[in-house]
Design goal:
- The protein is an alpha+beta fold.
- It has 2 domains: 209 residues, Aminopeptidase; 145 residues, 3-Layer(aba) Sandwich (Aminopeptidase), CATH 3.40.630.30.
- The protein has 11 helices and 16 strands.
- The strands form 2 sheets. Strands 3-6-7-9-16-10-15-14-13-12-11 form an 11-stranded mixed β-sheet. Strands 1-2-4-5-8 form a 5-stranded antiparallel β-sheet, with helices on both faces.
- The radius of gyration is 22 Å and the shape is globular.
Length: 396
């Protein structure tokens, strides 16, 4: 499954290309597909995916061999997807370790598998970039055919939008859901400022946030926000030092190299916002937020600190970004994977979705049974979380 882009003809004069380097697909044509998707995010853009590959972050050497699909007709790109041949399940945030273990216990290989996802990026959005709904189904059939021809165990689509989810279910893929926590600006009357946002919370939640911010301020911490081209090379260097320290504290290795962030600064500067925490003129922490200025959505991504300051994580990763989003009229802030503690800080639970296809019928039935039970548990969990809504009833 390696080498130069491979082509095969499918029905209706479509041609499918399988590319082991994102650069084999025209960037402008790819991004035109992205821009046509209502749920598009910056993470699906060609620049982002190419940077992951070119920086060595998502390559065969790290267990992410690109197998991007490009569906064309008369040299016009009609659909595409960021597909990878995976030799492990790290960096995905939808966990299938138990499935891999079950295969191993029965003497079968679970890896490699096919994965349609954005590496290291648990942000919901389009995964089957298509101009028309029928092209999504062509991509799904192509993924299954690719997996079958290579005798792979399975194929997976992670953090799907609603259009992709519906297409996958029509194609017979097994649905799965997880829970994330997102902040939504008030509608129809957006928050005037952070104090207005706090006023909408129940007293105990409001008091807790005020106490946490006071502890950070009392420690002598102040924040600066740098957006786009205003983020200088020294800022990126300091952020990357903080980013690596976070991984070191958890005895793990960063997924992303410094070159990846250099490429982001060069090709996607407008999509980044950095908060730098200082004390006495010295930088002590940084958080990095991704932005979609066109859609008014922000995404919490990475953070780190050179020393421990109580509650600094909450301020740098939630309160400063939320205040910025309110001031700039953003409508949503996505807090990343998992983290029930985010509810107390004004982020509400939302379900995210994936879809799965397993080649072996017995394992497919077993996984389907598991997913049915898991899905009922997720639904009950959502009901429980919604009963703990941190906001007071709003009256205009």
């Amino acid at each position: 499954m390696r080498g130069e882009a491979r082509e095969k003809e499918v029905a209706d004069d479509y041609v499918i290309r399988v590319c082991d380097d994102p650069a084999q697909i025209d960037a402008a044509a790819w991004n035109a597909l992205v821009d046509s998707q209502p749920s598009a995010t910056p993470f699906v853009r060609h620049e982002y995916l190419h940077a992951l590959h070119a920086s060595g972050s998502a390559t065969e050497a790290t267990g992410w061999l690109p197998q991007f699909l490009a569906l064309s007709q008369a040299d016009r790109l009609l659909a595409a997807c960021p597909l990878y041949l995976k030799t492990h399940s790290y960096g995905e945030y939808v966990f299938d370790w138990a499935w891999a273990d079950a295969y191993q216990r029965h003497g079968l290989d679970y890896y490699p598998k096919l994965l349609d996802a954005i590496p290291f990026t648990p942000v919901p959005g389009p995964r089957l970039l298509a101009r028309e709904p029928r092209h999504r189904l062509v991509l799904l059939r192509a993924i299954q055919q690719l997996a079958a021809e290579a005798q792979l165990s399975s194929a997976h689509l992670l953090f799907l939008d609603e259009e992709d989810r519906a297409a996958a279910e029509r194609a017979g893929w097994m649905p799965r859901s997880t829970v994330q926590f997102h902040w939504l600006n008030r509608a129809p009357a957006p928050y005037a400022d952070f104090a207005d946002f706090l006023a909408g919370l129940h007293r105990d939640k409001r008091k807790k946030i005020q106490q946490e911010r006071r502890r950070v301020a009392d420690a002598g911490i102040s924040f600066e926000a740098f957006e786009g081209d205003a983020i200088g090379g020294a800022d990126w260097d300091f952020f990357y030092r903080c980013y690596t320290l976070t991984y070191r504290a958890h005895h793990s290795t960063p997924y992303l190299g410094r070159d990846f962030f250099a490429r982001m600064a060069a090709t996607m500067a407008r999509h980044w916002l950095m908060f730098v925490a200082r004390r006495g003129g010295e930088r002590v922490a940084a958080s990095l937020i991704a932005l979609d200025p066109d859609r008014g959505v922000a995404f919490g991504r990475y953070w780190g600190a050179v020393e421990h300051v109580p509650c600094l994580h909450f301020d740098a990763c939630y309160y400063q970004p939320l205040a910025w989003c309110i001031a700039h009229g953003y409508r949503r802030f996505e807090g990343g994977a998992q983290g029930e503690h985010k509810m107390a800080r004004g982020l509400l639970p939302v379900q995210t979705h994936s879809a799965h296809w397993l080649a072996q019928p017995q394992f497919a039935r077993a996984v389907a049974d598991f997913l049915a039970r898991e899905g009922a548990g997720v639904a009950a969990y959502m009901d429980e979380l919604n009963e703990r809504n941190p906001f007071k009833a709003f009256t205009a």
